[in-house]
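Preliminary data (for renewal application), magnesium ion complex.
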Amino acid sequence: MSGSLVVHHASTYTCSYMLTLTTPLHQLHRYKIPRVGEVTARKLAAAIAQVNDMADPREATVEDLLHYLPLRYEDRSHLVTIDRIEPGQYASVQVRVRVAGSYPVKGGRLTIFELSATDETGQIRAYWWNQRWLEGTLKRGTRVILYGLWQWNRFKRCLEVENPEFEVLPERETTEPIHTGRRVPIYRKLGSFKTRQLRAIIYHVIERLSPEAVPELLPRQTLARHRLMSRYEALVNAHFPQDETPLELYNQGRAPAWRRLIFEEFFWLQLALALRRAQRERAPKGAIIHVDDRIREIVRGILPFKLTAAQRRALKEIVDDLTSDRPMNRLLQGDVGSGKTIVAVLAMVVVIESGYQAALMAPTEILAEQHARNIKRILAHTPYRVELLTGSTKSHQKRQLYEAIAQGEVDLVIGTHALIQEGVTFHKLGFVVIDEQHRFGVLQRAELIKRGYHPDVLVMTATPIPRSLAMTVYGDLDVSIIDQLPPGRKPVKTVLRFEDARPKIYRFIAEEVRAGRQVYVVYPLVEESEKMDLLNATQMAEHLQQVVFPTFRVGLLHGKMKPAEKDEIMRRFVAGEIDILVTTTVVEVGVDVPNASVMLIEHAERFGLAQLHQLRGRVGRGAAKSYCILLSKENSSEEARARLNTMVRTNDGFKIAEKDLELRGPGELMGTRQSGLPLFRVGNIVRDQKWLIAARQEVHRLMSLTPRPPEVNDLLERIRQQPKYGLASIG
Ligand code: ADP
Ligand code: MG
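Predicted structure:
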């Protein structure tokens, strides 16, 4: 009985009702699909458009519908006779209704619709709660398939099933059942469409779709190399599994049908990235940069310490890009504290020495200010003019800076991303470094190019990014990795503690301060209760100063303070004039005070993994043994517990990033859609990393063929026309 969907259509329906993948869903009512009228078609189009993030529901097509894959599957394929039903198991039976009717229960507040039905081997009972409408559907004499969990009713001495799935069979056997008697898809609710309605619609859509209407898009070699089934077969099977593959594999997204669709989705993305990259490499290069002995000498003179081997390698890769005639688009990855800043600074020196300007953008003002402070110090003995420009720079000062930047008098501008948003014009901008917090980067690069700059761009990530994410979000960038910490770093000892340990923690902090070290106490700042948390941090600072540590110097730092105040507090902490800094997460990224040896994180369960890792990265930067104390409530969620335990277990930022991706999923991890994270309909970059890598390799293989075969050109042409990849505009 298990379906023969694939060959079913042509005989039953005339061609005028045949669909193609590009048929708009809002016109589905024209195709004689049972119970799909104009209103339903429109609703379906709207729902599909919404999950696909499309602005216009009229763009939603049959193809989009068919990429709404089941959440899971159920095996209802084995029709059994009543005498074969095992109590306690799910099964489908085909029966004829003998008696049916509704009656009130619980004082009339509820009704039960009940029927009794037979086949040639026995009798069963089925009932539904509050479904009186079934009286009109499941009448005496109706042939029906019932699927559900069967139980033995001791009092009535018969098998029964509560709320079964059912499917009424027509008197004469012309069509096959959709919802029973086969392996059926279960869908996540789509708008107002529940699984049963959606299943019926998709069934009929597939039925009206001929294999010719689903052209194969992947090259034949690619299919063969990765042993992929055809696109048509994959779409049919992904909804109504008809192959031999165990349902378990379907449920895990590992059936061949799924694999084919996942591979294809990753393939197009990787192709788009490869194409974008190829296009960019053809773009004009802004600056001409040479490195000679004079510049090498200058760089050596600036170096405050010996670079690690990893830093040297990254610097070389960056400088090779700078001096090549292709524009640089590079991602510099490295764990917290691995020393990315100095590498960027040295690269900027090379650019400045060649007569160009450089810009460094940071995600927060505090960080921009810190970068400015550090870099001015590093470059103190050079003639370069380094300036800080942020949203809170005074306007008369700003005007002067704008002027100086436009004249080329400023060599290096450090600021927040307001730098490019506010329309600063540069005299000769040659190099942009974006020190980012995962979130921007993609946008900023686009912004720069839109404004007519083609500088070399280096994006530095604050925390490591899992490989799979790097391959999707940053897949069109070259990557340098600093996988080594500067010498002498000791891993931070991390512990998880609960409220009862507070007195002990305070004693420990006191000991550390007496030994000359400094301490951070961090409070979460959650947006909804920003005021509350601010109050917490403020009160905590007062409490610590007055009650707990009256003889120590306690400072307070939070995002709502005026820049000058923040600056002053940071300066005093750096200078060792503050022992204990109570702070919100403004210190999260980049802050660098090597003498700080303890980080106490309050309400640690409220922080994300990347954030915790960043925070912990504020200590362990000097020679002293450092500690990170995660103070949490005892009954935090399981996920929070998993995060905290990960922190206790490892110091490795790459491992933490992988775990973060696993716990939160890519969407959460990267923030908004603007992060550049593509919308995957089938693939899951955590689960399907293997296929992501396979698709990427396949694309590289195809792109490197010379001369380029016509089918590869066809692929490129096709992807240029896909608006979602945004390639058409680049030509
Ligand atoms: P991140 O990669 O997290 O941005 P930073 O660039 O802030 O790290 O560097 C962390 C700290 O390590 C800074 O104090 C920096 O001066 C120091 N540092 C960087 N490279 C080295 C090195 N090769 N040897 C010694 N200290 C270094
Ligand atoms: Mg940094």
